[in-house]
Amino acid sequence: MEFGSYNFGISGDLDDVKQLVTDIKNGNLKPIYFLMGEEPYYLDKISNFIEENVLNESERGFNQMVLYGRDVTVEDVVGNAKRYPMMAEHQVVIVKEAQDLSRTIEKLVAYAENPQPSTILVVNYKYKKLDKRKALYKAIKKTGVVYESKKLYENQVADWIRRVLSPKNYTISPKAAQMLVEFLGTDLSKINNELEKLQIVLPKGSQITPEVIEENIGISKDFNNFELRKAIGDRNTIKAYQIVNYFAENPKDNPIVVTVSLLFNFFSQLLHFHGLTDKSPRNVASALRINPYFVNEYIAAARNFPMRKVSMVVSTLREFDVKSKGVGSNAVPQGDLLKELLVKILS
């Protein structure tokens, strides 16, 4: 979803983000915005939106201040927040990297209970969150806004990518979205950066395909964990070994820890699949939290891997997860471990 030049995408708390930004645009401002949580993408977007939109350009010189948690104390923050604006209705004080003040952040409680009405204090508290039982959280909830940005689950990110692209008139194929998630994980900022690069080289109305990803980001469309998972599920031994050999030759780009983790998730979902009474595509997609596009892969894999075999594979993957982290296998090259793992899975 877009606000001016800002694209906030979507998360589980879309309505909160939408309402927060709409209120700011309409001048319904609060004296404190405490932005916290594990996903920094939204925290930065909201903070930057306030920084660039509450005051006009002529007002910012005297009335907008950006502080950094590592350089200030809570007392410094309060001192600046208590100042009066000059020739403007409001002043804006933004504290970036405020998590560096986590040990003393509760000292902000006295100010939060009686904030300066003409100050907009923005506290960007990344990767951490306030204790909801303590006085500071309760005080800010009464006088200002506490926004918590939660990390998306991996199975939610592909949908987030599609929703980010849609207002900009771009689409993305399910496989291409999966490639980005596999390569970049759930870091929304990194994913958004790559999407913005692709939008520079692609005309509006384009679809982002695996070929586009390979050419512009450098992720192989044929030799990746997504394709390995599919080859194993299909019991396509030749292709699976080709991919594993590629991984063995390029270990830095294809760490075994990531491969084992993704395969573990896949076979754990397959175990769940076997336990479903309703195996209709719609119910499978809902129960496993996967894109409906990939349901047929799970159906095919379930035919090739009965429940008993899946249980054995899950146990094997647990064993290799330990080995991949160097426990009891320091001298074994990553490529050899992968090949041994593949033999055990496909035997």
Task: Describe the model.
The chain is α/β, with parallel strands linked by helices. The two termini are 48 Å apart. The protein has 17 helices and nine strands. Strand 4 (64-68), helix 4 (74-81) and strand 5 form a beta-alpha-beta unit. The strands form three sheets. It has a five-stranded parallel beta sheet with strand order 4-5-6-3-7, sandwiched between helices. Strands 1-2 form a two-stranded antiparallel sheet. Strands 8-9 form a two-stranded parallel sheet. Helices cover 55% and strands 11% of the residues. It has helices spanning 14-25, 40-53, 57-63, 74-81, 109-113, 135-143, 154-165, 174-184, 188-201, 210-217, 225-233, 237-249, 256-274, 281-288, 295-304, 307-324, 334-346, and strands at residues 2-3, 6-7, 32-37, 64-68, 91-96, 119-126, 145-149, 171-172, 207-208.
Approximately what portion of the residues adopt beta-strand conformation?
5-15%
Q: Termini, distance in Å? A: 48 Å
Q: What is the number of helical segments per DSSP (H or I, 4+ residues)? A: 17
Mind describing the biggest β-sheet?
A: 5 strands, parallel
The helicity comes to 40-55%
The coarse silhouette is elongated
Pattern of helices and strands: EEHEHHEHEHEHEHEHHEHHHHHHHH
Cα Rg: 25 Å
The pLDDT mean sits at 90
Number of strands: 9
Low-confidence stretches: 1-12
Assign the structural class, choosing from mainly alpha, mainly beta, alpha/beta, alpha+beta, or little secondary structure: alpha/beta
Oligomer: single chain
Strands across the major sheet, in which order?
A: 4-5-6-3-7
